[in-house]
Amino acid sequence: MGQDQELAILFADVVGSTRLFEVLGDLAARDKVGICLEIMRRATEQHGGSVVKAMGDEVMSTFSDCGAAVDAAVAMQTAIS
Fold first, then answer.
1. Phi, psi of 13 (to 5 degrees)
2. Contact present, 13 and 58 (Cβ < 8 Å)
3. DSSP H or E stretch at residue 52
């Protein structure tokens, strides 16, 4: 077997996306969620992480250390706000 490696795992999702779909409709809400997912992907990569999975309105990313994961999360929040 290989060596164990510690990773920081970040789960991020678009809060309120169900309401967004109700208010804006499928097409417009899907566009807005897509923009958020792209922001999350970019923030992950800019902080040295990798997106492992993206589904619906959420992403799961891994980082080699906790600090990078926190920095990515802050970047996501700031950009989406």
1. -140, 165
2. yes
3. strand 50-55
The predicted-structure confidence for 17-42, as pLDDT tens digits, reads as follows 999 999 999 999 999 999 999 999 99
pLDDT of residue 3: 84
Domain count, the chain: 1
Q: What amino acid occupies position 28? A: A
The pTM of the full predicted model, rounded to 2 decimals, is 0.88
Q: In what order do the strands lie in the sheet with 50-55?
A: 8-13, 58-63, 50-55
- Phi, then psi, of 50 in degrees rounded to 5: -130, 135
- The pair of three-digit structure tokens given for residue 65, joined into one six-digit string: 């250390």
**CATH code for the domain of 20:** 3.30.70.1230
